[in-house]
Amino acid sequence: MTEFFQSLGMSYEWAWGVATLAGILLIALPLMLAVAMIIYVDRKVWAAINLRRGPNVVGPFGLLQSFADGLKVFLQETIIPSAANKGIFLLAPIITFTVALAAWAVVPFSAEMVLADINVGLLYILAISSLSVYGVVMSGWASNSKYPFFSAMRAAAQMISYEVSIGFILICVVLWAGTFNLNEIVLAQKGHGFGIVNGYFFNLLLFPMWVVFFISSLAETQRVPFDLTEAESELVAGYQTEYSSMSFALFWLGEYANILLMCILNAILFFGGWLPPVEWEPLYMVPGIVWLLLKTFLFFFLFSWVMATVPRYRYDQLMRLGWKVFLPLSLVFVVLISGYLMYTGHFA
Q1: CA 47 → CA 40, 42, 202, 262, 263, distances in Å?
Q2: What whole-number distance in Å separates Cα of residue 309 and Cα of residue 321?
Q3: Is residue 13 part of a domain?
Q4: What pLDDT, on a 0 to 100 scale, did the predictor assign at position 265?
Q5: Of 106, 151, 234, 271, whose CB count within 10 A is highest?
Q6: Cα(174)–Cα(232) distance, rounded to whole angstroms?
């Protein structure tokens, strides 16, 4: 894209700046539209599972319901509690929203369609996603209210607990691919079915780690059954209790952007990303971004399915699962996968 703007007579510096800005907008604007529509899909899936209709009045089939909700919160008054720390209270949703968008800079939508194709893309995502806890903790503390504060403490413990197991799962992926570059990780998934599965459907050796990663993704994004940070039955709405208007909306946008990020990471790290499901030449006629979006939608459907059917865990169950089940299991698989790769001469 830089070369295109240079052909229009711009200097390299200006062309690079404009190209980078255009790339950011090409990701951020469709992402915001996707978040609005994915909230609608989320509600429709819950409704179908619970034998209800869901949004069906605002626009055809209720498609404009999310935009109507956005207009409603935009027109509401922003209320700041008198005892709150005003600066941090307003900064928390901004941090949550900004961090949620920043992680998408290294996501490869196809072989060529990526804003920053860096060699440490996976490390970048791990670092950025770990920052999302700050928005929740800051909002809980700055609200100066006991329920948001309890929620902030839960969020900190929950995210730290599950990021440890996610880190070891990603070590397994990196060992297999031999790189932190997300495009290279996708390409490393070619023909890994050990003669049993043809193509890029899933890695039989890494499949148990995908199961752990998927469940940890639910915990990392505070989705049911791990929504202990919101927990309406005991914490009203958790860290969001004192928020209204656009500050509340920023939390929602950041939350769903993180959910979509986790869905797309499931597809990229374990299910071939933008590659077709199987090695069959006609499937390559479909653009890679279409395959990636279809896989992402599948994982989002699973997120919604779990939310509509699985009851919330108790907090002690949440911690036990993270520290006593997922952490030892992920450590065992790091040893198994590294041992297998050494035995087969992968590191030679």
Answers
A1: 11, 9, 31, 23, 21
A2: 19
A3: no
A4: 93
A5: 151
A6: 38
In the prediction, which pLDDT does 340 show? 86
pTM of the model as a whole: 0.88
Element (H, E) at 67: helix 65-75
- For position 348, what pLDDT does the model report? 43
Domain that holds residue 293: 76-343
Q: Which two tokens stand for residue 253?
A: 């946008």
Any domain includes 56: no
Look at the chain and report how many structural domains it folds into.
Answer: 1
**How many C-alpha atoms does 48 have within 13 Å on its Cβ side?**
9
So what's the pLDDT on residue 101? 87
Rounded to whole angstroms, the Cα distance separating 43 from 28 reads 23
Is 117:181 a contact under the CB 8 Å cutoff? yes
pLDDT of residue 243: 83
In a domain? residue 195: yes
Low-confidence ranges of the chain (pLDDT < 50): 198, 348
Strands (E), the chain: none
Q: What is the per-residue pLDDT for 328?
A: 93
Instruction: Let me know if residue 308 belongs to a domain.
Output: yes
